[in-house]
């Protein structure tokens, strides 16, 4: 295959310009604002996608046009203007800064607290890094190990081109194009994302993480992730990063699809720390994500999430327990401070016999934030002996914030056992006093208590993530005491 | 929608019968406008997600019964708690039956809404209380308000302890092919007063009946109200019960709902707190089979500090019956030190029965104790085996377990005769003789 260069692309686009009748600014390589079928086609073209993919996008776009933005969530925000967004922007080639000295000192301070190495700091804040070669070589050796096992781990655009049959078979099988407003939008315009395939009986030897492809991650306003674990395989997948990313994109509408075939297990961990807006609640990211996993026989999907960023979070990682004896788990910590709003939870759809699900959700609200848990546990009439346990605990700090729970429980099977419990509490004065007495300052004491409150979920995170997540909790709640 | 059209013309006919110049009529017109705009609730609304009125609304309901009907006391005696002496306010097809009732004006008012709404001496009370706590946005409540004319009016003066319970019973005789009745009750319980009220809707034959009832209860300072709703109707009767309770400081109100029968039963039970140290109790037992449907929709609005609410709903569902529990606890910013508890336990006995539960907490205050628990399960096989191995037949063993399951609610009934009655109904429903009385 001859190499297709940027220049070829430029030339092609220049020629295509007339055909589609819109203007492309070659310099910045960003599409004009607005969304129509031509834009969708152009994105697909730009990514050199096969025809079926283009058609698939168009189908999604047409469905999206018919849809109305949902309003049922317990969040209030100014609706994004979909025609004012540019739907494609090539990864920036030029570094944003020349050296770390130019980076926002507040950001650096946070990095320091999280204990992130200088090189990583540079990468994350978009500083030109010379030693990036190191990182690349790490990634390369890493890729080699994976390839030996037959594991495919690449960007979704690459997968569409090179593993077309796999993608075609599974994309949209768990989250159909017409699933919801944002999923439809994502299906139409997704720019990039990750693709992962674990072959039969393979246990992935390391935690897969988008972190290794951080240079590409900058593209993702509409990310698409597809993870397929073939029969009897295991994978642990990490998404996001613990460092605050100063992404100014207003809207993030990602779609994540997990497919766990017979006896497979997928563990999907997310730490999200996008820009939550400033202390007055100005700015910040809207995080509207559709995440869903499908479990075949004896399969297991486990979602773990730590949500501390974004101005508005609206996501429900779900499990469809289709196969008999399949297991779904959901562990979540959602922290909101200042004017943040989170409406998050899960859906456990029990279809197969002897299916089990566990939901542990911890919500912490401080400042003037609103934190909601919204979940659905549905037992179909065929799901004999289905079992669910849900626990939603909320911690409130101060009386300007709110905690809400909206659990939906629908059971159509007499042999199902479902338990749900929810509590709301605050940090006890006596607890803080106890710590103070022993020389622990209030701020530290609060961190200690919050950590204890979230332990059940933090324990589910992979080791290196857990340590950073713990620190992240501390930082997110900074200044919320007193 | 046909019924809606019919209601519009009925409202015009109704306007000819009542005094259209009164303030009250403005309230009615306002409410009717709201109903006209909103129409009957559909499954698209979050509050009605699991309950559809469609099939019921297809009936050609008469809004006003054409003729009055007499009912013999001997026929309906079993529907009263006849073992004890009570005040009675009885309606037959929506019309007051003086023959079956025993009302009073001696020291307290137990009488009729129609006279309270029209007689000048009650005007002040009506102005102050009528339609004041009912939700003006809710379309079915508005529909009731628009046609508000008859019902029970109970006014207990301060410091009065009413020595016998008050029964409010609505019979429908089925002379109409299908009947829509809309009783409107107003209950005011003065400071330090104490009253026990039993409400029942009963259809006497198999013609479809839809009851859309609204009850407003005002509980003044330190007053105590125990309210019992018995819903054990036949399979053609549907009930939409809207109850609104406003509580002042240190008052204590409890509502027990026993849903044992009816085509479709929807209970909207709303508590609003207007003072500190209030105690609210909401309890219910639902035991249904066949294709029956019972929907409990509760709201406790904690607006003031130091208040408590306790909810405990038990449900047993057999055959193709469906149950819904939607319990909302709302704690406002000011309502510190709130203690709100909600529990909902359900047992499904058959493959076709289903239950949809949505316990909901909305909390804006930080120093509160709020919890809810919800379980869906089945009878404990070990316990069944234990009893059967000791010679208790399966049916009885099953009944005993279910009885034990609901006992937490039964034991808090404060009227002994009522407790015995409920026990009896449950035994009948379970098809066994318990062999013990309580």
Description:
- Chain A: InterPro entries: Fe-S_cluster_assembly_SufBD, SUF_FeS_clus_asmbl_SufB, SUF_FeS_clus_asmbl_SufBD_core, SUF_FeS_clus_asmbl_SufBD_sf, SufBD_N.
- Chain A: It comes from Flavobacterium endophyticum.
- Chain A: Belongs to the iron-sulfur cluster assembly SufBD family.
- The complex is a heterodimer of chains A (482) and B (438).
- With 482 residues, chain A is an alpha/beta fold.
- Chain A has a domain of 329 residues.
- In chain A, 30% of the residues lie in helices and 28% in strands.
- Chain A has 13 helices and 20 strands.
- In chain A, the strands form 2 sheets. In chain A, strands 3-5-8-10-13-16-18-20 form an 8-stranded parallel β-sheet, with helices on one face.
- About 10% of the residues of chain A have low confidence.
- Chain B is an alpha/beta fold and 438 residues long.
- Chain B folds into 2 domains: 273 residues, no CATH class; 57 residues, no CATH class.
- Chain B is 23% helix and 37% strand.
- Chain B has 10 helices and 20 strands.
- Chain B has a 10-stranded mixed β-sheet, with helices on one face. In chain B, strands 3, 4, 6, 7, 9, 11, 13, 15, 17 and 19 form a 10-stranded mixed β-sheet that branches.
- In chain B, helix 2 runs antiparallel to helix 7, helix 8 packs across helix 9 and helix 9 runs antiparallel to helix 10.
- Chain B is globular, with a radius of gyration of 21 Å.
- The mean pLDDT of chain B is 90.
- At the A-B interface, strand 19 and strand 20 of A face strand 19 and strand 20 of B.
């Amino acid at each position: 295959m001859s190499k297709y260069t940027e220049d070829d692309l430029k030339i092609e686009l220049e020629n295509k310009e007339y055909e589609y009748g819109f203007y492309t600014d070659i310099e910045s390589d960003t599409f004009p604002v607005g969304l129509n079928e031509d834009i969708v086609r152009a994105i697909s073209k730009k990514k050199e996608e096969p025809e079926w993919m283009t058609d698939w996008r168009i189908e999604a776009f047409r469905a999206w046009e018919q849809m109305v933005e949902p309003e049922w969530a317990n969040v209030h925000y100014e609706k994004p203007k979909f025609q004012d967004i540019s739907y494609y922007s090539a990864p920036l080639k030029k570094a944003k800064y020349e050296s770390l000295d130019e980076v926002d000192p507040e950001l650096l301070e946070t990095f320091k607290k999280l204990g992130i190495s200088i090189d990583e700091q540079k990468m994350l804040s978009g500083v030109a890094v010379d030693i990036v070669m190191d990182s690349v070589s790490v990634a390369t050796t890493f890729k080699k190990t994976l390839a030996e096992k037959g594991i495919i781990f690449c960007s979704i655009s690459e997968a569409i081109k090179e593993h077309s049959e796999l993608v075609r078979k599974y994309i949209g099988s768990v989250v159909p194009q017409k699933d919801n407003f944002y999923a439809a939008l994502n299906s139409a315009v997704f720019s990039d994302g990750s693709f992962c395939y674990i072959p039969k009986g393979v246990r992935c030897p390391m935690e897969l993480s988008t972190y290794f492809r951080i240079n590409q991650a900058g593209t993702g306003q509409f990310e698409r992730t597809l993870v397929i674990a073939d029969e009897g395989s295991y994978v642990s997948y990490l998404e996001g990063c613990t460092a605050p990313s100063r992404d100014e994109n207003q809207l993030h509408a990602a779609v994540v699809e997990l497919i766990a075939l017979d006896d497979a297990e997928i563990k999907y961990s997310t730490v999200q720390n996008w820009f939550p807006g400033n202390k007055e609640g100005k700015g910040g990211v809207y995080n509207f994500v559709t995440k869903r996993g499908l479990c075949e026989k004896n399969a297991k999907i486990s979602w773990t999430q730590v949500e501390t960023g974004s101005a508005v979070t609206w996501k429900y990682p779900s499990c469809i327990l289709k196969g008999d004896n399949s297991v779904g788990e959901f562990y979540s910590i959602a922290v909101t401070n200042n004017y943040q709003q989170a409406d998050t939870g899960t859906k456990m759809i029990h279809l197969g016999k002897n299916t089990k699900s566990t939901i542990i959700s911890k919500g912490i609200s401080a400042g003037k934030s609103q934190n909601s848990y919204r979940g659905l546990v549905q037992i179909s009439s065929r799901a004999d002996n289905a079992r669910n346990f849900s626990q939603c605990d909320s911690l409130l700090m101060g009386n300007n914030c709110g905690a809400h729970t909206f659990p939906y429980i629908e059971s159509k099977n007499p042999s199902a056992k479902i338990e749900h419990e929810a509590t709301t509490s605050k940090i006890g004065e006596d607890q803080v006093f106890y710590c103070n007495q022993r020389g622990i300052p209030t701020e530290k004491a609060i961190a200690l208590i919050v950590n204890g409150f979230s332990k059940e979920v933090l324990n589910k995170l992979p080791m290196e993530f857990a340590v950073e997540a713990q620190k992240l909790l501390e930082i997110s709640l900074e200044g919320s005491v007193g | 929608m046909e019924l809606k059209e019919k209601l519009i013309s009925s409202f015009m006919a109704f306007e000819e019968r009542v005094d259209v110049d009164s303030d009250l009529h403005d309230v009615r017109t306002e409410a009717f406008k709201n109903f006209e705009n909103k129409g009957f609730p559909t499954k698209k609304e979050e509050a009605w997600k699991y309950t559809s009125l469609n099939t019921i609304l297809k009936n050609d309901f008469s809004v006003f019964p054409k003729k009055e009907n007499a009912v013999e006391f001997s026929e309906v005696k079993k529907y009263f708690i006849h073992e004890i002496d009570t005040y009675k306010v009885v309606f037959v097809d929506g019309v007051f039956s003086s023959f079956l009732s025993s009302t009073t004006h001696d020291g307290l008012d137990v009488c009729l809404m129609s006279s309270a709404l029209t007689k000048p001496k009650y005007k002040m009370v009506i102005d102050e209380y009528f339609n004041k706590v009912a939700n003006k946005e809710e379309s079915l409540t508005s529909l009731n308000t628009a046609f508000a004319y008859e019902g029970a009016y109970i006014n207990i003066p301060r410091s009065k302890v009413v020595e016998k319970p008050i029964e409010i019973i609505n019979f429908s005789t089925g002379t109409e092919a299908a009947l829509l009745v809309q009783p409107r009750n107003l209950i005011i319980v003065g400071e330090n007063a104490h009253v026990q009220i039993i409400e029942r809707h009963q259809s006497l034959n198999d013609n479809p009946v839809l009851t859309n009832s609204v009850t407003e209860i005002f509980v003044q300072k330190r007053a105590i109200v125990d309210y019992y709703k018995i819903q054990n109707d036949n399979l053609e009767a549907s009930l939409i019960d809207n109850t609104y309770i406003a509580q002042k400081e240190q008052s204590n109100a409890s509502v027990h709902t026993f849903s044992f029968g009816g085509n479709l039963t929807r209970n909207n039970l709303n508590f609003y707190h207007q003072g500190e140290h209030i105690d609210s109790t909401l309890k219910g037992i639902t035991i249904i089979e066949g294709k029956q449907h019972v929907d409990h929709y509760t709201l406790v609005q904690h607006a003031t500090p130091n208040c408590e609410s306790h909810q405990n709903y038990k449900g047993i569902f057999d055959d193709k019956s469906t149950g819904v529990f939607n319990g909302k606890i709302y704690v406002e910013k000011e309502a510190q030190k709130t203690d709100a508890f909600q529990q909902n336990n359900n047992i499904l006995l058959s493959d076709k029965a289903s239950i949809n539960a949505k316990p909901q907490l909305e909390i804006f205050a930080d120093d509160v104790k709020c919890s809810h628990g919800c379980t869906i399960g089945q009878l404990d096989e070990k316990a069944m085996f234990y009893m059967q191995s000791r010679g208790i037949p399966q049916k009885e063993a099953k009944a005993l377990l279910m009885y034990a399951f609901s006992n937490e609610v039964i034991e808090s009934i404060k009227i002994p005769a009522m407790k015995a009655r409920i026990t009896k109904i449950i035994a009948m429903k379970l098809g066994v003789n318990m062999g013990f009385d309580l």
